[in-house]
Structures are given as C-alpha cells and as structure tokens.
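user: can you give me the structure for this one chain? tokens are fine.
assistant: on it. calling the predictor now.
[tool input]
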Amino acid sequence: MGKLWQKLIPAHKLVERFTVWDNHLLDRHLVAADCAASIAHAQMLAAIGILKPEEVAALKEALLGIIRRSERGKFSVPREEEDCHTAIENELTRTLGEAGKKIHTGRSRNDQIIAALRLYTRDFLLEFRGAVLGLVSTLIAFAGRHAEVPMPGRTHMQIAMPSSVGLWAGAYAEELLDDLRLVQTAYDLNNTSPLGSAASYGVPLPLDREMVCRALGFGRVQNNVLYVNNSRGKMEAIVLEAVEQVMLTLSKLAQDLILFSMPEFGYFGLPEEYCTGSSIMPQKRNPDALELVRARTATVSACAAQIKSIIRALPSGYNGDFQETKAPFLGGLSTGLACVRVMDLVLEKLSVNEEKLLAGFIPEIFATDRALELVSRGVPFRDAYREVGLHLERLRGLDPREALKAKSYPGTTGNLGLELSEARLEELKSELEGERKRVRKAVASLTGLEVVFFREDG
C-alpha cells in the first residue's frame, strides 16, 4: 500500500529515513485519537451523501477494532507508512476496499494530526488538572496539620522573621491554584475542532464542521481554516507553557524540601522509600526524586522553547517543520505529569521535626516584630528599628508561637485562610469533574467505548 501521497517514483531510502525519523514511533500515542476523529468524519460524510450508511458502519467497526488492537499494543505504524493516519487508512483499504478509499475525502493529514493532537492533549490536561488538584489537596491538609508549628522565615537564605510550616505549605497550595487557571485557559484554547480545514484552505464540499465538533465533544469549531494550521505548534507551546508554570512551582518546592531536609537543617524528613542510595557510601539517603523534579523543570521549559523556536519564522499554512514539534510536545507533557505525581507522593509522607524547627529561632528572628511592637506604642519606626538593632541581646527567650499568633489578619501565620484555598480547590474539582463527564459522554456516544486518548504508560 505505501504512502498516501506516493505515485510512481518510490522515495529514496535515505530521504525516507530522514523525513520520517521517529514520527512512526511517536504516532503510536495518537492511534486511538485519530480513529475516533475518523469515525466522526465518516458519519459527517454520510450526512452529506459521500458515504453510504453501510460503509459508515463497516468503517466504524474497523476503526474500533484498530483502537482495541492499539490498546493491546497490536497495531503498529511501519516506517514506510510514515504516520498513524497512513497506517490506519491503508488498513481500512485493505480490509474494506472502496469504503477505505473514501475515508480521506474532505480532509488532509494536516487537520488529521491536529485533531488527534487536540484529543490527546484534552485527555492529558484533564488528567494533569486532576493530578495538580490532588497535590493542592495534599498541601492544604499538610498546612492544616502544621498550622501552628513555627518555622524560621528566610530572605536571602538568612534568618528573617517568624513563620510557620502551615504558611510555607499554604503558599505552594495557592500558587498551584493560580497555575491551574493558566492550565484551564490552555485547555479551553486546545478544546477546539480543526477538522474541515483540510490543507489550510477548505474544500469544495458542504462539510458539516459543527457536526464533527459535537461528535468529538470539542467546545467549539476553530473557525478560520488557515488559522487552524497556523496554530499548530503555537497551541502546543501554550499548553507546555501552562505545564511549565506548574513545574516552576514544583521546582521551588523541591528545592525547599532538599534544603530543609539536610541534616544541618533537619526541618523535614523525606520518606525513605522515595530516596535513593550511594554505590559506595552506605549511609546515604539521596533526594534523587526531588533533584530530578528540579532538573526536569528545565526539560519541560526546553521543550516549550524548542517548539517556539521551530515555529517562530514559519510562513502561514502547513510546513514540514511542524513534525519536529511532536517529540518535545509529547515528552514535555509526560514529564510534567510524572513530576506532579512524584511530588504528591513525597508530600503525603513528609515528616516534620518540630524540635529542629524551634532550634532555628535564634533571638534575631524576632527583631522586626519587636520593632513593630514599639511602633504600636508610638515610637517612630526608624527609631524603633535602630533601638532594636543596637540591643538584639534583649530578644532572648521570646516564644515563637506567640509571634505567630500576633499576626492575625488574613493570609498571615495567625490566620492562614486555608478555607479560601479549600473553596477554590472544590470549585476547580467541580469544574473538572463536570468537564470529564461531558467529554466521556461525547466520546462514548461516538464510539460505544470508554476510549482514553492519553495514557501515562505510553
């Protein structure tokens, strides 16, 4: 059967290897999504008189068979077929004859790959949002359990002011909740149907783009057919940049945990089962998982930057350069989700050493609080600042817990406001669950199966 575009002259083997590269391997992730989009497209072609009802039925049965085989690892994409779109169409033509030859009517591999990527990405983002919400829930619970446990606050890595473990953990929970708003925006932009754009310029057939959009559960049709192809790469970069923001939060959290679990600090104890050892030093418990979260933040950032570098100077319409965006995109997504999963595991079993935390409260940590206490008695701040700075020895014996309680307005150590984060968490959980149900219902109605387009195991 060969390539969809092949005529009489076969492709040069070196050029074939060079142009296909690893595309046929990457496309194994997209088989189910491409098949589902093909079912929706076939039903639309029947509605406009291109396909007969019996042809649609046969195509749907065959496509569902390919999905099942793909889930079992039994459907491959050979290098000579270039991509999953070719492999699937060739399989349909081999088994169904004329119906298989008709399935490509009104579309291009350009809008096929975009549709498959959108479906794959939609499932990923639903899973990713759920994982981040799980981590937020873990952080809020951790903050609540340790709301009154004093923790030295630092600036420039030096002792600064009294803080608490609750304030520290609650800060990361709020940050991730804000990150999730960016992820939601990326989800909304991605959740648009590209089918019907074909090679960027539409086709002279009465394609019903809304019908296909509804069948696949997309939020809306991406209207301008040229913009559809122009958005390839840019959409992937937007999604990865949202994931990257989560990763930046995780990297700082990982760094804190690495630092504060060092024996010299000893504030936190890392779960032993999530640490690794040394091949030569018997005593070692290394925070490799956290170090890799920190490092892989750079990996996700690099994936986003690579995609933007590829598309930054391309002319409008389809360009072969887009193929090079697929590997960093798929790799960046799986890396981001794995890091969220690992961080949640660590936080769930993280122990807190209150004795070590209290030992960090040297007298100087109370200096600012003492100066502001003098201000409350009418002393000008700059005079109070100087007075305390010249007599730090007077700060000995102060109670860290009393210092925490003294700050009582919202968002401070004495009034964390965790209920605000909990309310936002529940709101985002409800939004996510509603969207999951809507998408699953649409896909199940189309295929009759519980098809998952994104799988963490590849």
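assistant: here you go. The longest strand covers residues 158-164. The chain has three domains: 13-105, 114-144+166-205+221-358+417-442, 362-405.
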